[in-house]
Every structure is written in structure tokens, then in C-alpha cells.
Amino acid sequence: MKPYKVLATAFLTASLLLTGCTSEQDALTNKTETKTASATESKSNKAKSAATSEVPQQLQKPLKIASINQFSIGTFSSQYISGVKKQVEEFGGEVQIYNADNDLSKMAAYVETAVNQQVDGILIDHGRADAIAPSVKKAIKAGIPVVAFDSDLNIPGVTVIDQDDYSLSWNALRSLAQDLNGKGEIVYVWVGGFTPMERRNVMYEAFKKRYPSIKEIARFGTATQNTALDTQSQMEALLQKYPNKGDIDAVFAPWDEFAKGVTRAIQQAGRDEIKVYGIDLSDEDLQLMQEENSPWVSTAATDPTDVGKLQVRFLYQKVAGEETPQIYSVQPHLVEKEDLPNSKVSMDEIGKYVEGWGKSEAGTSPWMDSLKKANQK
């Protein structure tokens, strides 16, 4: 990774930590000695559970998990779901996947269904708090642990993990600015209504102020069941509007479905002078980036399979009675075409070229190895 990108990421992360984090105080000072002793004993038991390789009693039976997704569009989502399924299977559990097809009311109804079915745990993928928080609170009240991914939920007891969307966006934008030497005309492909997209847009707005000589000449974007294809059509029309070299220098596409669409449109138009900077990565994306003369030169990403596995591990820790964080951000990485080998590589191999890729050890407990061994088929 280039030094300026490391510094930019470190600076951004430190700033976010200073401005976005708050400390919480233990409110047990007015409790009786009996209750204090009981709480201390409970914490001791949790610590003991986390430190031993013995499988906790709560996990002696297969867990039934509900995975409720706002949408399942593209290969990033499919690889995330694959990670969820694989980790639950390794732990001997069962997972039911619910796809709300971008219908938030349906998503809330699926949470209610999971509560009524008395599942052992609920995984939330995306969704907005104003639509699903009441249903999630019912799950917590019913004693069902919940772990969310890329959601704006802020409910005590619900762990929310994300990809550090602010860092993702800034890493990609910083790469774009450096390549353009701080000056040029760009296209922005974006759609609101999704928590990670809203967060990425925060950094884009800051980027425009930081680099005033980089001008946005066009903006479009929709989320559909055929997002990549629809984006391709929209980009093709835009290229006809701006037919000359130099009209467009780059495209910022903060979702890999957007990046795929604009990349294919640029390739078919033979406009290889236009460069694409994206967010997210999957096997399909990686193949497209590695094509000869591909305009997709850089993407900021986390490993979607690893994210799915991490979410499951946090859920199992909750069922075991262990403490889990209220929020957790997965470390993102900048993947650049120039750093990849000439031969084709897959997501399983990319860790050889991107340090730290897919190696998150968060949410692990010693007993997890024993649980996996007990459920080996």
C-alpha cells in the first residue's frame, strides 16, 4: 500500500474515533451488595466461558438462526450469505435465509416471524432503524440475540458491525484524487436510502470540499434487481452525451454493482481513458478488474465471506452469554489493479497480495474450535 494511503486511512480513522465514539459507565453503584456480588459472579462466569475450550451448555444443541436481508443483489451479497451459511454449518447450526427484496416492511415482518418461531438468534443485513427497530426490540425482549450488519440500529444489546464505510469511501476517493493530480471531471454513481451508501456519501461531500478542482459533471444511480445492467445502460447514454476524450476523467462508483455497470459500458465504448474507482469486491469484480485494459483500476473493500462469518461468531458468543461489542468496524483494504499479478487471481488468493485480507480473528473464543470439531461431517 502506498504511504499516503496509509496516512490518509490512519488520519481518518483517528478522526472518526475522536468524534464518533463515546464511553459508557457502569450504573451498578446504587445496587445492594447481594446484587453486586451476583453481577460480579456473572461476569466471572462469562470470562470463564470465553477462556475455556469446553463448548458452553447453551450450544450443546444445534442452533436455529434466521438471517434477514434487505436485499440480495450481486455477487458481494451472495458471497456474504455464503460466509454466513458456512460458519453456521461449521458450528452445527441451521440458518434460514430471508430476502426482503428491498422491501423494509417485509423485512420487519420477517423479524416478527423469526421471533414467533422462537429462533435461537437473528442476523440482520442492512435495513433501516426507522422501519425495523420495533421488531428488533421485540426480539431482544424475547431473549433472542441479534447481530446486525451495515445497519443504523442503535439498540442496547444489539451488536452492529460495518465495513467502516467512511474509510472505504475515503480510500477510494483519495486514490482517485492522486491519480488525477487533484484536477478533472468525474461522474458520481450513487443512490440514497441505504445506511452504507449514506455514510459513503458523507465522505464524498467532504472530498468535494477538499478537492474543489475535481468537478462532478454528472450523477445517476438506481438500485434494482438488475442494478449492474441498468447502470451500464445509463452510463452508455452518458458517454454519448460526453463523446470526446477529456470530457470525463473518472467515475466514482461506491457499490460494486455500479462499478460493474460503468466498467462494461466504458469497455464497450472503447473509452479506456476513463478510470473507475469502486467500493466492494467479489470474484466477479476481481475478474473484471483483471481484464486487459479494464478501466476499473481501484476498489476499497472488505472480504464479504469473512464479514458473514464474523457476524455469526458474534451471534454465537451472545448465545453463549459472552460479552460482545456494541459496534465493530471491519478493517477495509484498498485493492489496486497495479498491485495484482499478471495471472488471474480469485478472492481466496487475494490475501497473498493484499496484507490482512480475509484474516479477521475478531469474535473468536477457544470453544469454537471444539464446537467445529464436534460437528465435523
From TrEMBL:
Gene3D superfamilies: 3.40.50.2300. Residues 30-55, 358-377 are annotated as: Disordered. Residues 30-54 have a biased composition (Low complexity). Its main location: other. PROSITE patterns: PROKAR_LIPOPROTEIN. InterPro entries: Bact_Solute-Bind_Prot2, Peripla_BP_I, SBP_2_dom. One of its GO terms (cellular component) is outer membrane-bounded periplasmic space. One of its GO terms (molecular function) is carbohydrate binding. It is found in: Cell envelope. Residues 70-323 form the Periplasmic binding protein domain. Pfam families: Peripla_BP_4. PANTHER family: ABC TRANSPORTER PERIPLASMIC-BINDING PROTEIN YPHF, D-XYLOSE-BINDING PERIPLASMIC PROTEIN. Belongs to the bacterial solute-binding protein 2 family. This is LacI family transcriptional regulator.
